[in-house]
Amino acid sequence: MFEISSENLLLQQVANDKASAIAHIAKRLQELGYVEEGYAQAMMAREEQTCTYLGNGIAIPHGTLESRPLVKKTGVVIAQFPQGVAWSPNEKAFIVIGIAAKSEEHLTLLRKLTGLLSDEQRIQRLILARTPTDFIHYFQTSKPSITPALITTHLTTDNLLTLTAENVCHLQQQGYCNEHFLSDVMAHQSLYLGENCFLNDSAIGNLENGISIAKSETGKMLFTVAQIDEQLNSLLCALTPQILQQLQRADKNEMITILEKLYKGEPLVETGDGMLEGTFLIKNPQGLHARPATLLVKIAKQFPCEILIANPDNGTDFVNGKNLMKVLTLGTQKNQHLHIKTKGEQAAEALQALEAAINDGLGE
Asked: Which residue among 106, 170, 289, 337 is the active-site one?
């Protein structure tokens, strides 16, 4: 993802023409160490190939494929031209985003801009912003990914097409997707997650990150995801059978609480018996073999509380998290999950330490 800071911004700028604007932006890209000298010419060469004006006053000049050797590292410079710069016939650019990309990292930014282009009010705020703080706020502000308006419960149907239509209707009404999203998501089969739960999404028509959920009276549940970047991936990876069961039992407010914790990377849930639990993705290329398992058990032994671990993907029972051989019997492979429960003194600290170690790769 692109991080925008004040040094990436050029506010209250004036340029006589497109070439001057691009030269100014390229100079700043070079000053910040993103590109070598000569990148401005590459950006103008791209304009000769294809105009980079997107619409609604936004342009995204960038270099050609042949100019990638001039890019030292991926980055952007955003220039604000309140009076506008003539960019294409009969079109002025007011927000010009100069992009230096070593490969395809800039696609994340382009997906973000897809949502921005449909929000004329935000664009006007960006054009009129006087301070870097205001500009960054308006640029990064987006719709909440999890909101009551996107969740429907107690539906009287279990039909997946009807549930899909319900979810997409909410997403479209709230500005998370457009009409192309509906036709594409309807054309593809939903993914079965287990526990009578399903997920679908679309490669096109996404405007903002958002998850719409339709849950029937019988407990059948469909997640429909609109996604412009990778921010929702950790939440989606955490939808293990245990989490899905919790969501099925929960009311709308409880569902939002669970999903927000997962979204924030805080999948901690206190059960009725005072036990804390969380579910974490194993990213190690060879799974939880002896070396990372040894580190996991070593960390577990540092805490006095009870620690139990299971592999929900393999359907295993919980084992003693302080016993190396027991942990190895879980047979955890890459992209599978560990469901960890802690109870007693320093239970929260233990769970947080184990989560941090797993997210860091357990020494690998």
From this structure: 289
